[in-house]
UniProtKB/TrEMBL annotation, chains A, B:
Protein's recorded name: Sugar phosphate isomerase/epimerase
Domain Xylose isomerase-like TIM barrel residue range list: 28-261
A GO molecular function held by the record: isomerase activity
Pfam families membership: AP_endonuc_2
Organism in which the protein naturally occurs: Pseudaminobacter soli (ex Zhang et al. 2022)
PANTHER family: HYDROXYPYRUVATE ISOMERASE, XYLOSE ISOMERASE
Keywords, ordered alphabetically: Isomerase
């Protein structure tokens, strides 16, 4: 298939892809050397370290921080648990600000143990995000709600579609301050018949804060740890990245692959495979998607 | 929690729940003896047997046929494959008519090998259903599109929400003849923020043809074979069955549980557990759902 590739500098490496094998300071250098344009670290790599120093190192390496992963889940079995979760996220927001990240990724959480009420969990999530917004404003950090695949609705996130995330944004941030938006991950959203429309709507509302790429494998052996690199699975990444770019997305495409298979490789092997995988994404020429799209 | 249970006669046993351990003629008697009001057989149990005889036996046992499982997937790698799939489904429809089933369940299929185009698969599905409608009309069999969980979008069904199924119905059967509707399975739809609204809409459009119950386990060890019996997992079955009944659903609640764990038990053990599980579903009194719903 002929088409346009996307410059490697337009891709960012989510450090989860590398299996957290090395300290972040080493990972920063490896990612920059491999030619990527950004990095997205996890809290476990930052919170016990010298965050301002890491931020300086990332900038010196010429990398953007496409995201910072991730929120503590909001819902709790009690009001006290919920409050503790909110406080924990406020703490994380301060690190996010120090890192100079594009956004703090909200994996919002789901049913507390013993609960069967998604409506209650969703209310706790809305209240939790509302409780973070003032800090986000003051710190200049944007919050990116990440809708997770419906197979995680019980235990990871009860926000499961882009449409649902946008409704939360409209409710909590009606004036679109720029401090609340959406992180779209193709793994979680590729199946959605509305994915292209919702991506365009997210961008047009100024809320497309992050875009994660990876692939859906057939068969999927494990519900959590069996994602593929772009090209290994069935997601039409050319069409999806094309929609994002057509809609005016100007951020990075962040490679986030949880895979026990890939984690067996070394950091340099994973970065080499990642680079090839990212460059294999081929946008249809002149916005010409396949005829049935 | 206090509330109303649902009469066991209002439940039907999908024979997949029993692991196909016995010939259908034995299963019919066992299901009736256990006090259920219906049965939903699979094609493998019918197509090489005396279908009219089985139908008579089911009626004599006082059971309804809540569904007939299931369609051959529509999408093919070629037009010829698609045509063969349609023909296969036409054949199955004749058995469905002989059984006197409430509906023929359409598991519509997804990406043919080598394809990454959901739009193409979805078009093949729409064309396939359209190609069955005349036969369905002539035979007096209703077609029930079953939206499957998005985790099956690649390999089992590219119709993944009730809303999407209703759009197909409106497109293909705009006058709501009664011959095209939806099979709602809580396993596939419980996570959907719109599930209650869409269930009400399905019923009000006269398209709620089947309602499957089971449960979502946390954790889910296997993407296909790890469903739970009602009460074992996190789905709020009281709220969902309540919505269906409130919306005027007058069909059976069909227990469909694919579980390698449960299949290790004998048919009588499974029926005993099933009966208890169905009777454990407790509708909130007076339609009083939990306050956040």
């Amino acid at each position: 298939m002929s088409g346009m590739t996307i410059d490697l500098r337009r891709f960012s490496i989510n450090t989860a892809t590398l299996g957290y094998q090395a300290p972040l300071s080493d990972t920063i250098e490896a990612v920059a050397r491999a030619g990527f344009g950004g990095i997205s670290p996890w809290r476990r790599e930052v919170e016990n370290e010298n965050a301002p120093g890491l931020a300086r190192q990332i900038r010196a390496a010429g990398l953007q921080v496409s995201g910072y992963c991730r929120s503590t889940c909001f819902p709790g079995a009690s009001k006290r648990e919920w409050l503790a979760n909110v406080e924990d996220n406020k703490m994380a927001l301060r690190f996010a600000a120090e890192l100079g990240t594009k956004c703090f990724v909200l994996v919002v959480g789901a049913l507390p143990p013993g609960s069967r009420s998604l409506p209650d969990a969703r209310q706790q999530v809305a209240d939790g995000i509302a409780a973070l917004l003032a800090d986000a404003q003051a710190l200049g950090v944007s919050l990116a709600i990440e809708p997770l695949h419906p197979m995680y609705a019980a235990d990871r996130a009860c926000v499961n579609t882009i449409e649902q995330a946008l409704e939360l944004c409209a409710l909590l941030d009606p004036h679109a301050t720029g401090r609340l938006g959406v992180a779209i991950d193709v793994y979680h959203t590729w199946w959605d018949p509305k994915v292209h429309d919702m991506m365009a709507r997210t961008a047009s509302e100024g809320r497309l804060l992050a875009f994660h790429v990876n692939d859906w494998l057939v068969p999927t052996a494990d519900i959590l740890m069996d994602r593929g690199l772009p090209g290994e699975g069935v997601i039409d990444l050319g069409a999806l990245t094309n929609s994002a770019l057509d809609a005016g997305y100007d951020g990075l495409f962040e490679l986030e692959v949880f895979s026990s298979r890939i984690w067996r490789l070394s950091v340099s092997e994973i970065l080499e495979l990642s680079s090839r995988a990212c460059l294999s994404i081929t946008r249809p020429k002149e916005g010409r998607l396949n005829s049935a799209t």
